Amino acid sequence: MKPEGLRRLAIGLPLLLAIGGLRGQALPDSLAEHPAGTMPVQALGEVVILGTAPGCHGHADRPLGSLDSYLSGSNSVNMIRRGCYAWEPMLNGMATERSVITVDGMRIYSACTDKMDPVTSYVETSNLSRARIKNGASGGEHGGTIAGSIDLERRRSGFGAERGLGGSASAGFEANNSQRILGAALHYAAPSSFADVDATFRQAGNYRAGQRPGMRSEVDFSQFAKCNVSAIAGYRPGERKELEASVIFDRATDVGYPGLPMDVSLAQALIGSVQYRHLPRNGPVSLWEAKLYANGITHVMDDSHRPEVPIRMDMPGWSTTEGFYTKLYASAGKHAIKATLSGHRNRSLAEMTMHPSDPAEPAMFMLTWPDVRTLYSGLNAEDRIRFSDRIDLTVHAGLGMHENTIGSEPGRRSLELFHAALPASQQRWLPSGGATIAVHRGRFTHRIGAGGSQRAPSVSEGYGFYLLNANDNYDYVGDPGLRNEGSLSAELSGTYRHDRLQVEWAAAWFHVMDYIIGKPRPELLPMTVAAAGVKVYEQIPYATLVNASLGASCRLGEPWELAADASWRYGQGSDGIRLPLIQPLMGRARLRYAKKRYVAEATAEASARHRPSVESGEVAKPGYLIGGLSLSREFTWGRHRLTANIGADNILDQYYTTFSDWFGIPSMGRNAYAHVVYAW
Amino acid sequence: MNFAPDWEKRRMMSKLSGPLALLALVGAFASCKKDEPAGPAPQAPADTGLQWVQSVADGDRTIELYTGTGMLVVGYNRIAIRIKDDGGNAVGNAAVAWEPVMTMDMGGSTHQHGCPHSAIAPAPDDPARYEGYVVFSMASSSTDAWVLDLTYDVGSGPRDVAVPVSVQASDGPFSKRFISAAGTDGATYLLALVEPSRPSFGVNDMVTALYRVEGPMELPVADGCTIRVDPRMPGMGNHSAPGSEDLVQGPDGFYHGKVGFSMTGYWKINLIVEDGAGTALCGEPVTAGHEESSVHFKVTL
């Protein structure tokens, strides 16, 4: 059978099966009024609550904090910082090529070749309610992944028992970089409809690093401005049927990246979806959800504000994605099943125009992403089997079909400079599977899991053309002939709960086979002026990654609570080379005082010295210890509520650089902030 | 919803800009031509992509010259000729020979020399189209004139026609398709870029003609050499591109290999000509302190 036919079959067959399976369902009455967030299938992984959900308050987290700052609170996530904006989330010590980041299950592909616009940069905490993190192979619901997945769930007020209108207005100021935050939201809820609209604006100047005697602390080109508007509306066309439409528009302008030689004049996303949900009253199926979505991203890199560059260049990139998923939750006997069929296609195009200093000389143009088309469809299922109150087993399996095609003939010919006789398209199958068993014994819960998964090379790994990595100063070139990268992983975790004490520990081991990494080719000369050389993506036999974390929290007696956690990662390639961007031992501690309407918190964060990956151009970063304080107070008058939050991060104004600060840029110095949220 | 609306437009633009620029260039040169007889251009041979250069009358016959661009330039020129009788019919299977001759006015005295050229013969697909190539080594000027001495016999005995031709310069700040270089062996070498005639992204087939000057009219092909290729972009840190292969002589006498271009713009193709023993005859390697070989072509994508 020709590949085209195979592809149609791969997409069509599961769809037919899924539709056929649904038709066969009986739909009479039963309960199972689960919103998607509290489905019976328990997520493997963790949930990060984002922001202060309307109507619930009680923690001192700054309500207008960025998504990036919320995500970095998770032990599984590190943020790569190239500036003050658009941090790249690393999951389990692996960057975004190895994870799948979705917004309400929607795939979005970044449009920047230099990773300046991770998916997380196109949403706001005001759009989102929580981030659901899954580790390793269990994160394969929407695509092949090694590290796992992060799904950012949209915030929706949902249908209400009574008709009601609410709203909020918020304002914030952060002194370090003069960040101004303004936000407003409106919520409408009724028994058969709801709507939420929100808008957030942020504008910030350059940030300052911690003080060092005799040194200037302002970090040039670290400003940003962002505007985000989102709307979501739901309607019940009938009992137990729900329709929902959602749109997010995000536009960042004048974003500086001190860790890179270029800035961004525009990063814009339009993300839209329509969704249908059916909640059968009876029968094994408790929820069926289907979604169609599309999103488009325009990203324009520009260096016009940099005083000195070897050559002026414009680097725009575009990414458009259309996709669907349909999933159902069912339970029968001991089984609680979730099955997802998803598919999407993406076009990624990026180009580079360089303007020589001699105006008579013609401009130079090349394609850095040669209009790469990705087509993916996959089927994924998860079954949680409760053998008893003390033992449950979760098994999951999935299979995806992934195809890449080069849409641009000049782009294909350009890549042939490195790889002779390139095929026009490349097809691959991405299987995944795994199981986790949980044993509850008294105060202990033990979990042991194992899994395996494969992923396809990312657009840059497969098709990137002279992409500068500022961290190691090499031009990177993709290889369309890369094989799948595969992973075998094992996870051991546990919880101990006793009275006021809770202790959690987790350790995960990843054996990543055919690990994709750029390797220098001394015979090739770089394109970028002053770059050290060219690296071409290759595969080493395997790499080993280990993640370990330990956390404890203790209620010391009202109103005090103490929590601390520590985490450590390890990463080494089979060629003996240390992997880049591996977190050293880090610890965090938090002392919290919560009484009536006051919450006060003192935090500390410390890191051991970073062991650098010299091969990746890293230099050792010394350890550091920083502390922060915050205080919040809630005021209420009738149904009006005002929350005020003040605080300071890095209160001693320490100068420090973390292992994930790109190009060794310093982290932010002391930052005093005040956030106010008024809601009714 | 209209996502990424610029997308298609940009793709179209990038597709169009190459041919458009070329057309503009051709137009600019064409408008410079002056000493052509007025009158409508004859119909070019169909499906050849040829453009008319000029016509010369010889009694009641007309000789027509064609090239791919409608002009003659310094360097390699593939030329087609048609001989039309008084009825306007192209005559086939004639015996044709040619000899390009340059006459230079040296301020009282004159000096004559030739330039490398092939034989001229009927095209395989059209016996009434005679094809060959000429590598003009300099441009015409008010004091220096090229004449194509044409001899043909359509069956009624050989006839000689002197066809004065105007050869335009092909050198520019971002274009150079012909090189005359002094060799380390004391001889002068001539190099002409044959292909790529339309350079594009990626790996291009590269063909170069190489001659050794042995006298004003003795310009034989230099055999058994190797030409090393190193494409560079002087406008951007003099960076290189992979994909090039050194040129070696083929059965046609030309030197064949590959040259790689990673982007559009102005490329300098640096060359080193080595003899059969590997000794450099002309050209030097590009290094940090030596940004170009003295032997190089210039092309613009």
Structure keywords:
heterodimer; A: 680 residues; mainly beta; 31 strands; 6% helix; B: mainly beta; ten-stranded antiparallel β-sheet; five-stranded antiparallel β-sheet; 21 strands; disordered N terminus
List the helices and strands and how they pair.
The complex is a heterodimer of chains A (680) and B (301).
Chain A: H1 3-23, E1 46-49, H2 67-71, E2 77-80, E3 88-91, E4 99-103, E5 106-107, E6 128-135, E7 148-154, E8 164-174, E9 179-190, E10 193-204, E11 224-238, E12 241-255, E13 263-278, E14 285-302, E15 312-332, E16 335-355, E17 364-386, E18 391-406, H3 409-415, E19 425-441, E20 444-455, H4 459-463, E21 467-469, E22 474-477, E23 485-498, E24 501-520, E25 533-557, E26 560-573, E27 586-595, E28 598-607, E29 624-637, E30 640-649, E31 671-679
Parallel strand pairs in A: 4-7, 22-25
Antiparallel strand pairs in A: 1-6, 2-3, 4-5, 6-7, 8-9, 8-31, 9-10, 10-11, 11-12, 12-13, 13-14, 14-15, 15-16, 16-17, 17-18, 18-19, 19-20, 20-23, 21-22, 23-24, 24-25, 25-26, 26-27, 27-28, 28-29, 29-30, 30-31
Chain B: H1 6-30, E1 51-58, E2 61-67, E3 72-73, E4 75-84, E5 95-105, E6 110-113, E7 121-123, E8 126-136, E9 144-153, E10 159-165, E11 167-168, E12 178-182, E13 188-195, E14 202-213, E15 226-233, E16 239-240, E17 245-249, E18 255-261, E19 266-274, E20 280-282, E21 296-300
Parallel strand pairs in B: 3-11
Antiparallel strand pairs in B: 1-2, 2-4, 4-8, 5-6, 5-9, 7-8, 9-10, 12-13, 13-14, 14-18, 15-16, 15-17, 15-19, 17-18, 19-20, 19-21
Q: Give start-end ranges of low-pLDDT stretches of chain A.
A: 1-43, 53-60
The number of helical elements of chain A comes to: 4
Strand content of chain B: over 45%
Question: Main β-sheet of chain B, in a few words?
Answer: 10 strands, antiparallel
In round numbers, the mean pLDDT of chain B is 86
Q: Give the integer mean of the pLDDT values of chain A.
A: 90
What this model shows, in words?
The complex is a heterodimer of chains A (680) and B (301). Helices cover 6% and strands 55% of the residues of chain A. Chain A is mainly beta. Chain A has a 22-stranded antiparallel beta barrel. In chain A, strands 1-6-7-4-5 form a five-stranded mixed β-sheet, with no helix packed on it. A two-stranded antiparallel sheet of chain A has the order 2-3. Residues 1-43 and 53-60 of chain A have low confidence and may be disordered. With 301 residues, chain B is mainly beta. Chain B is built from one helix and 21 strands. Chain B has one helix at 6-30; strands at 51-58, 61-67, 72-73, 75-84, 95-105, 110-113, 121-123, 126-136, 144-153, 159-165, 167-168, 178-182, 188-195, 202-213, 226-233, 239-240, 245-249, 255-261, 266-274, 280-282, 296-300. In chain B, the strands form four sheets. In chain B, strands 12, 13, 14, 15, 16, 17, 18, 19, 20 and 21 form a ten-stranded antiparallel β-sheet that branches. Chain B is globular, with a radius of gyration of 21 Å. At the A-B interface, strand 14, strand 15, strand 16, strand 17 and helix 3 of A face helix 1 and strand 16 of B.
